[in-house]
UniProtKB/TrEMBL annotation:
Name listed for the protein in its UniProt record: Hydrogenase maturation protease
The keyword Nucleus is annotated on this UniProt entry: no
CDD domains named among the record's database cross-references: H2MP
SUPFAM superfamilies per UniProt: HybD-like
One Gene Ontology MF term: aspartic-type endopeptidase activity
The entry's keywords: Aspartyl protease, Hydrolase, Protease
NCBIfam families assigned to the protein according to its UniProt record, in alphabetical order: hydrog_prot
GO biological process, one term: protein processing
Family classification: Belongs to the peptidase A31 family.
UniProt keyword Protease, yes or no: yes
Length: 166
């Protein structure tokens, strides 16, 4: 692929001063401490994902890390494919008024990439001004980081499939 820049791009979304909403940014900063092969990039996009349209449109696989609210048990870890969600009723707008689905659509119109998008996140307890995570999110973060690392390496075919991580 002529336009391909990254085999795996990991994006940390959220706002660190909004309590549990900052978990995506925190997780990617922890992931940056690991050794990664060429072709992997880890970016803290915060609340302005549109600023990373170029990187998104040049990435084969993307893992998006964010707080995910489906109103289940707080601290629950989610993993799903972006394309499996037909309707995004609560798709948050970034600081520039763009939703994640709109940005992915724009990237695909530019380069037909990304081909694979995985969303990983945790059900938050609260999202309000504050710099501390809730107890359920704090307890789930280490496992989420482990699962994201596993997902990225699986996409790179560096580890054999392990159904116990699913």
């Amino acid at each position: 692929m002529k336009n391909l820049q990254y085999r795996v791009l990991i994006l940390g979304m959220g706002n660190l001063i909004m309590s549990d909403d900052g978990l995506g940014v925190y997780a990617v900063n922890e992931l940056k401490k690991q050794q990664w092969p060429p072709g992997v990039s880890i970016l803290e996009v915060g609340t302005s994902v549109i600023n990373y349209l170029e990187e998104i449109s040049r990435s084969q696989n993307i893992i998006i890390v964010d707080a995910v609210r489906f109103d289940y048990r707080p601290g629950r870890i989610y993993r799903f494919n972006f394309n499996d969600i037909e309707y995004w009723p609560n798709a948050a707008l970034d600081a520039h008024g763009m939703s994640l689905p709109a940005i992915i659509k724009m990237a695909r119109e530019i380069t037909n990439l990304p081909t694979n998008i995985i969303i990983c996140g945790i059900e938050p307890v609260y999202v309000f001004l504050g710099n501390r995570f809730s107890e359920p999110v704090s307890k789930s973060l280490p496992l989420l980081i482990k699962k994201i690392s596993y997902e990225a390496r699986k996409l790179l075919a560096e580890v054999p499939f392990n159904p116990s991580m699913e």
